Amino acid sequence: MAQNIFVNAIVKALTPHLDLSGTEIEGMIATPPDPKMGDYSFPCFTLAKAMRMSPKDIAADLAAKVDTTDLLEQIQTAGPYLNFFVSKARFVQEVLRNIRSQGDRYGQSDIGQGKTVCIDFSSPNIAKHLAVHHLQSTMIGNGLYKIYSALGYKCVGINHLGDWGTQFGQLILAYKKWGAADKLETDGITHLNQLYVRFHAEAEGNPELEQEAREWFRRLEDGDPKARDLWQRFKDISLEEFNRAYEMLGVHFDSFAGESFYCDMLNDVIERLETAGIATESEGAVVVDLEEYGMPACLLRKSDGATLYATRDIAAAEYRKKTYNFAKMIYVVGGEQRLAFRQLFKVLELMGYEWVKDCTHVDFGMVRFKDRKMSTRKGDVILLEDLLKRAVELAKSIMQEGEMEHEVPPDQMDEVAAAVGIGAVIFAELASKRVKDVAFDWAEILNFKGDTGPYVQYTHARSSSILRKAQQDVVDDVDVDLLTDETTMAVVKQLERLPAVIRDAAEVYEPYFICNYLLDLCGATNTLLHKHRILKNEPPLTNARLLLIDCVRQVIRNGLWVLGIKAPERM
Ligand code: ARG
């Protein structure tokens, strides 16, 4: 299966001398920590027992038997390792050829063919503004969606809207008492928030309100049309705001089946859990006791009959397995819900679902804002829409004032500013390990020379600009020997990594692998642009370097695509 001709060549060279299958040999091939030691290595430790020789002797023995080829130029031993040096020219040729022939598909593969991945992400609560942790979930989820799609999986992006629960009884009641249709129209979620706040303030001195609100939720759960109509209105208003943000972010969902979607399935879930003896009644409530697993009980139904978040998650998991038969289900939700997911997975396990092993809670840390203005607005809530708009404004002024040469035609300025501003926010969200907290600082995330989205986009635009200025077509048939100097090889080596980086990112659910990778590629590229002139050389050299730059442009674009970031041609 290996698409890499060098690995294939090593497998072919070693097979006659070892009692191992090609796949086994391939699995053992590694990359030396220092490229000076070789491009690939074959460690001999595990062979020692069967061959009754020391790893070092095995390596020496193999080195004596294996011949160099036009692909494998040098073979050396380093203690227990057999190290291979590939032909630089052939390596360059191979990498560039792959990129040029695969274009936008370079980096993708089909290892996920025929398998489905469900990704539960973003999943905000209706009647509340989108908050920053939803941005994180949205962008990590979107990144994983693209990463898994790139690997050939069929992805189902699910927005598990928080649109059910006792709070909607409170909201209905508050709206009936103090709400106004015109305010709902103009202020949207903000009006709902005010009602919510007022409800809690008033309920403090008047506990009967709580009782009335519970009654409204019961009516909602029973399908009472009055309750349903209002709830639907709150939901529509909320979705309008959410969709505006999703549109700005370029995020798409395949399903908006939220908590309410499962409400008809909940009685059945609870009944089955009780019949199976997994759930028990306790003071009028239904719970799954998880004490022996070191967790608090999982509450399925309150004594007033109301169902809970967890109950709906159990129903959702069953439904998704039945509907999509997923090979994996990923929940992209902040770390504060770690316990909730451990409980959920345990209950699913107790229900006998072996597929619970395919469910993963992909959590993440918090975003801290260094910008006072952002964090004090409207209490602690940072409105996502405001954040994105601010990013676009700032990007625009940086581009207009900066010392950057101006290439963006005025009529495209807004579009490019949106790509850069939003790209900067997304990159900043994704650039560190998920569990790490992110410190968010405008000057930092928009620094065109820092480890940022705009820096990567700028390297892409710079490459595009060189290709435009060349005023000639990129030719594929170039003298690859001209691309084997150290500076150029550093770029080619980065270009070669994208497919592996995407696979690795999928394995541990870490889009930041792609960010790091892009920064490395851009670093190597900018060093090259600093040292080498691309245009106005002897034609063979110009042709070769233009081909390389075209591949850089393509690979940055593909990497940004995976992150959900646009790659403008000019900026
Ligand atoms: N609505 C929840 C929140 O805003 C997140 C839901 C995550 N998905 C799930 N299946 N529980 O915190």
Task: Explain this structure.
The protein contains 22 helices and twelve strands. It has 571 residues and is α/β, with parallel strands linked by helices. Among the domains are: 5-86, Arginyl tRNA synthetase N-terminal domain (Gyrase A, domain 2, 2-Layer Sandwich), CATH 3.30.1360; 396-563, Isoleucyl-tRNA Synthetase, Domain 1 (Orthogonal Bundle), CATH 1.10.730.10. The protein has a four-stranded parallel sheet. A three-stranded antiparallel sheet has the order 1-3-2. It starts with a helix and ends in an 8-residue tail after the last helix. 41% of the residues are buried. The structure holds arginine. Arginine (ARG) is lined by residues 120, 123-125, 160, 162, 313, 316, 331, 333.
Describe the structure concisely.
The chain has 571 residues and is an alpha/beta fold. It has 22 helices and twelve strands.
Topology diagram in text:
Blueprint: H1 5-14, H2 22-28, E1 40-43, H3 48-51, H4 55-65, E2 72-78, E3 81-86, H5 88-102, E4 116-120, H6 132-150, E5 154-158, H7 166-178, H8 181-187, H9 189-205, H10 208-221, H11 225-249, H12 266-275, E6 279-282, E7 285-288, E8 298-301, H13 309-324, E9 328-332, H14 338-350, E10 359-362, E11 367-369, H15 372-376, H16 384-401, H17 413-430, E12 438-440, H18 442-445, H19 453-470, H20 486-508, H21 512-531, H22 539-563
Parallel strand pairs: 4-5, 4-9, 9-10, 11-12
Antiparallel strand pairs: 1-3, 2-3, 6-7, 7-8
Helix pairs in contact: 1-2, 5-20, 6-20, 7-9, 7-10, 10-11, 13-14, 16-17, 19-21, 19-22, 20-21, 20-22, 21-22
Bound molecules: arginine.
